[in-house]
Amino acid sequence: MSASSSPQPERRGSLAKGAQPAAIRAALLPEDQPLFDAAYEQALDQAKRDYDLAALHATLENWRRQAVAQSNPEAFRLMVRRAAAFFSGQPVPENEPFAVTRAKAGM
């Protein structure tokens, strides 16, 4: 087998697996996807203005961490409920909307 016929891994840039914007977005809860879109667009605009990718990389890393936390939605919801109970000092009602619980948790 010649070198030209051996399979080559697909190259899609220098970001690590899971750090590509599409992968991050796909791993987020649906309600967080528009927030990611807005932050990503803002970071892209800043990178265009400043000719510097630092803010874009920081934005992607922040959202990648959130995507990792949200990769198991049920575990993420439980973590948010526990954080909300901790920070509020009150148990979280079972029927409380998740957005309210997240606000209590600061998440």
Structure description:
The protein has 5 helices and no strands. The radius of gyration is 19 Å and the shape is elongated. The protein has 107 residues and is mainly α. The model has no long low-confidence stretch (mean pLDDT 88). The protein has 2 domains: 18-71; 72-107, no CATH class. The protein starts with 20 loop residues before the first helix and ends with a helix.
Based on the structure, what is the oligomeric state of the protein chains?
single chain
Give the overall silhouette. Answer: elongated
End-to-end Cα distance: 53 Å
The average pLDDT value, as a whole number, equals 88
Helical stretch count? 5
Could you state the order of secondary-structure elements as H and E? HHHHH
Main beta-sheet annotation: none
Low-confidence stretches: none
**Could you give the count of β-strands?**
0
Q: Level of helix content?
A: 55-70%
Proportion of beta-strand residues? under 5%
Structural class by secondary-structure content: mainly alpha
| Radius of gyration, taken over Cα atoms and rounded to an integer in Å | 19 Å
**Count of the separate structural domains:** 2
